[in-house]
């Protein structure tokens, strides 16, 4: 079998060759891809697809590890919201696990400050009780007051601070309609309307396939303040990757997207293409099926690829 390019890491060359072969099959039987007519751009895309798959594998590695209770304590240096979610889920604390996933997505991981915001908010700035699921559901109005009283401390400048890359325009405000207080309130109300996270998921999954359940939840989550396309997608995908619930995206969710939509247009139509999101979702769903990569991997890869089509760059969320 001939190849057209090489993997960034030799270990992934067989996977590189397989994806390249399947892309050629897609082009032969379904549609041409003008964005990767150049061999270098094709090579970069394939490597981005592999890199996106590797990010998913990170979750598998986490699930195969055993963590101490220290990872659940925001006052401890070992705290990590994803590891804490896995630990709580293993202990049967499902609502706490899902609450941590929500905060993982809402705050994100700052490139330098790391988990500072989730650590300090969830951890009540070193105080007790934590803003756990039981606490936030029983004292939601009090959380807004606490957040307001502690704005100065949370936003102090002696340390780097901020939301993750996907949430960099979010606000820690206790007053804004789209600030953290409003986000938390709307999320709690959404879940508690059903009683628990499991009840919510099960209500949406009755008579539905995993992809239909994902779609139903994606639409329903619009009631959560400041959770647009990428936040909803990340939240549901994290629940899926952690295997908390059987949720699977049926397509790449390009409506309302920026980078992924630009990437899809460039890939399928070349520079200047303006294809509608719905048409691209259908085409990328076929691409996903033929090439053998999941829709979330395609979405992530085309977004990163369009930032640097001719030179591979590794991106971190």
Entry keywords:
2 domains; globular; 56% helix; mainly alpha; 317 residues
Short synopsis of the structure:
It is built from 15 helices and no strands. It is mainly α and 317 residues long.
Q: Rg, please? A: 21 Å
Globally, the shape reads globular
Tally of helical segments: 15
Q: Return the structural class.
A: mainly alpha
Domains counted in the coordinates: how many?
2
pLDDT averaged residue by residue:
94
H-E string: HHHHHHHHHHHHHHH
Could you name the ranges where pLDDT drops below 50 across 5 or more consecutive residues? none
Quote the beta fraction: under 5%
Q: What's the N-to-C terminus distance?
A: 34 Å
Number of strands: 0
Task: Give the fraction of residues assigned to helices.
Answer: 55-70%
What kind of oligomer do you see? single chain
The largest pleated sheet is described as: none
Overview of the structural elements:
By secondary structure, the protein is mainly alpha-helical. The chain is 56% helix and 0% strand. The protein is built from 15 helices and no strands. The protein has helices spanning 13-29, 39-63, 81-90, 94-107, 116-122, 133-138, 140-149, 151-154, 180-192, 197-205, 210-220, 229-241, 259-269, 277-291, 295-307. α1 (13-29) crosses α14 and α13 (259-269) crosses α15. The radius of gyration is 21 Å and the shape is globular.
Write the layout of secondary structure elements.
Layout lengths: L12 H17 L9 H25 L17 H10 L3 H14 L8 H7 L10 H6 L1 H10 L1 H4 L25 H13 L4 H9 L4 H11 L8 H13 L17 H11 L7 H15 L3 H13 L10
């Amino acid at each position: 079998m001939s190849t057209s390019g090489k993997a960034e890491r030799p270990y992934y060359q067989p996977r590189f060759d397989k994806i390249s072969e399947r892309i050629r099959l897609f082009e032969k039987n379904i549609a041409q891809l003008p964005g990767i007519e150049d061999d270098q751009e094709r090579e970069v895309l394939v490597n981005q697809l592999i890199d996106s798959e590797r990010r998913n594998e990170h979750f598998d590695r986490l699930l195969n590890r055993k963590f101490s209770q220290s990872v659940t304590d925001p006052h401890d240096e070992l705290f990590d919201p994803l590891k804490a979610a896995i630990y709580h889920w293993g202990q049967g604390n499902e609502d706490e696990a899902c609450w941590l996933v929500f905060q993982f997505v809402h705050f994100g991981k700052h490139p330098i400050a790391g988990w500072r915001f989730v650590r300090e908010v969830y951890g009540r700035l070193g105080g007790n009780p934590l803003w756990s699921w039981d606490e936030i559901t029983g004292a939601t109005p009090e959380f807004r007051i606490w957040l307001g009283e502690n704005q100065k401390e949370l936003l102090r400048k002696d340390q780097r601070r901020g939301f993750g890359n996907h949430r960099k325009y979010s606000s820690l405000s206790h007053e804004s309609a789209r600030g953290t207080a409003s986000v938390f309130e709307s999320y709690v109300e959404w879940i508690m309307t059903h009683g628990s996270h499991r009840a919510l998921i099960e209500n949406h999954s009755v008579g539905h396939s995993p992809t239909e359940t994902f779609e139903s939840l994606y639409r329903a989550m619009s009631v959560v303040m400041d959770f647009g396309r990428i936040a909803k997608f990340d939240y549901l995908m994290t629940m899926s990757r952690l295997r908390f619930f059987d949720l699977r995206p049926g397509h790449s969710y390009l409506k309302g997207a920026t980078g992924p939509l630009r990437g899809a247009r460039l890939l399928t139509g070349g520079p200047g293409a303006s294809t509608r999101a719905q048409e691209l979702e259908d085409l990328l769903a076929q691409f996903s099926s033929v090439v053998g990569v999941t829709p979330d991997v395609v979405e992530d890869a085309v977004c990163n690829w369009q930032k640097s089509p001719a030179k591979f760059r590794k991106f971190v969320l």
